[in-house]
Amino acid sequence: MRFLRPLSLIVLVLALDQALKFWIKLDFTYNESKRIFSWFYLYFIENEGMAFGMTWGGEAGKLMLSLFRLLAVVLIGIYLVSIINKNAHRGFITAMSLIFAGALGNIIDSVFYGTIFSNSTASSPAVLFPAGGGYAPLLHGRVVDMLYFPLFEGFLPKWLPIYGGDYFIFFRPIFNIADASITCGVLMIIIFQKRFFRKEDATGASVMADASAENSDPVQTND
Questions:
Q1: Which of 145, 166, 201, 223 is catalytic?
Q2: pLDDT at residue 102 greater than cutoff 70
Q3: pLDDT the model gives residue 159
Q4: How far is the C-alpha of 96 from the C-alpha of 57, rounded, in Å?
Q5: What's the pLDDT at 50?
Q6: How far apart are CA 44 and CA 42, in angstroms?
Q7: Is 179 considered catalytic here?
Q8: Among the listed ranges 115-124, 161-170, 199-208, which one has the minimum average pLDDT value?
Q9: Is residue 151 predicted with pLDDT exceeding 80?
Q10: Distances in whole angstroms, Cα of residue 51 to Cα of each of 16, 146, 149, 154
Q11: What are the residues facing 42 on neighbouring strands?
Q12: Cis peptide leading into 171, omega within 30 of 0?
């Protein structure tokens, strides 16, 4: 039962991440965008596997990145199982589950998408299991990104150094649910680290208990 909660969270994140990626890949042309709100767009791009649309050059770099991500997913998974078995703080287990789910979601793209999808172009969406084969060999797939939040757009004040007067967009990176899952997990660990890694001091607890007992004794007075 202790594995049920983290496993359910991992499956939920993976299902949402992959379902949205499949829909975007099969229905959107490359660089197509759809406005949902003034501050939120679905904007289809692909990258070589790094978070928030970042790339790392060439075929050799792509292969090394995919292998590194595979190793990282395995190590994170082993660590997650170990902290569950050790009854670590529930919040820490949740954070690590989010990180694991996000890392696994993106590595699925890197490993398999090149073999199961045709190439996405500006004129046509991709095809699943194309007759001529996929757009890239195993481990060379591109990660699908689509979440774009331009919360603020405008020109920066001219009095600002270096970037004054430049056109500015916040938040510029385009990402996916897996990226968001990893980010949420990391932020949880940073914000709640004292709570997650707090160790009980048995001696201190005993001293506090004794002091509390003494304070609760009836007050004796002399006649």
A1: 145
A2: yes
A3: 87
A4: 29
A5: 57
A6: 7
A7: yes
A8: 199-208
A9: yes
A10: 17, 12, 15, 25
A11: 34, 147
A12: yes
Instruction: Identify which of 48, 51, 46, 69 has the alpha carbon closest to the alpha carbon of residue 145.
Output: 46
Give the tens place of pLDDT for each residue, 45-92.
998 755 544 555 566 777 788 888 899 999 999 999 999 999 999 999
Average pLDDT, the chain: 86
Burial of 218 (0-12, 13-18, 19+ CB in 10 A): exposed
| Rounded CA separation 63/77 (Å) | 21
What distances in angstroms separate CA 44 from CA 1, 25, 57, 166, one per listed residue? Answer: 39, 8, 20, 25
Separation between Cα atoms, residue 77 and residue 133, nearest integer Å: 32
Name the catalytic one among 17, 179, 201, 217.
179
Name the 3-class secondary structure at 167: strand
CA dist., res. 123 & res. 117, Å (int): 16
CA-based radius of gyration for the chain: 25
State the residue for tokens 């594995």: 3
pTM: predicted TM-score of the whole model, two decimal places: 0.82
- Band (pLDDT 50/70/90 cuts) for residue 210 is very low
145 labelled catalytic: yes
H-assigned helices in 86-173: 90-108, 114-116
Q: Assign residue 33 a region: left if phi > 0, alpha if psi is -120 to 50, beta otherwise?
A: beta
